[in-house]
Amino acid sequence: MQRWEREAGLPVRRLATEKRGTVYAYKAEIDAWRENRSTLLAAEQDKNSVPQSAEPSPLRRKIAFGGICVFLIAAVAIVGLWISTWRITSARRLTFEGNVLTPALSPNRKWIAFSSPRESADGNLDLWIRSTTDGTQSRLTARGKHEIDPVFSPDSSHILGSPRESDKTPIFQATFTTR
């Protein structure tokens, strides 16, 4: 009570007695003090309050960015550990030695088409096709120009190829028959 009286100006009165004093106040004074104090507290709270902005503070952004980075690093590490448990159980060569470029696997997985300068006297890239089952291969083009990026048709019976970027030759189609 004395602290409120001293620090906040609480309007109380004291009546001295032998052992303990009696404290009393008038209702009108208390009501006026309370009204005045409410106004002062509201003004002080408005002065000290920080307006909330819709945008997060730079510190919150940094904390959020750091949390996302830690999460991504942990995810990459977990995926890396999972992938590192994969082992190649068997492997076999599907093409001959040499310069094999832009390979493509047919939709039925029976053929591989690729570009190679093999058997080309002028070093041009020709399209080749190789069976994935018996290993037979054959040259599809020998036009004296580079043919690259073979793409199979959905039924695996045609191959589209494109010339090198410097050539003005349009995209061409090669049809092959299976034996």
Structural topology:
Layout: H1 2-7, E1 13-15, E2 22-24, H2 27-48, H3 58-84, E3 101-105, E4 111-116, E5 126-131, E6 137-139, E7 147-152, E8 158-163, E9 172-175
Antiparallel strand pairs: 1-2, 3-4, 4-5, 5-6, 7-8, 8-9
Q: Which sequence of strands runs across the widest sheet?
A: 3-4-5-6
- Cα distance spanning the termini: 107 Å
* Overall 3D form: rod-shaped
Q: What Rg is obtained from the alpha carbons, in whole angstroms? A: 43 Å
Question: Taking all residues together, what is the mean pLDDT?
Answer: 79
Model description:
The protein is α+β, with helices and mostly antiparallel strands and 179 residues long. Among the domains are: 2-48, no CATH class; 101-175. It has 3 helices and 9 strands, in the order αββααβββββββ. It has helices at residues 2-7, 27-48, 58-84, and strands at 13-15, 22-24, 101-105, 111-116, 126-131, 137-139, 147-152, 158-163, 172-175. A hairpin with a 5-residue loop joins strand 7 (147-152) and strand 8 (158-163).
Summarize the structure.
31% of the residues lie in helices and 23% in strands.
Task: Please describe the structure with a list of short key phrases separated by commas or semicolons.
179 residues; alpha+beta; four-stranded antiparallel beta sheet; three-stranded antiparallel beta sheet; 3 helices; 31% helix; 23% strand; rod-shaped
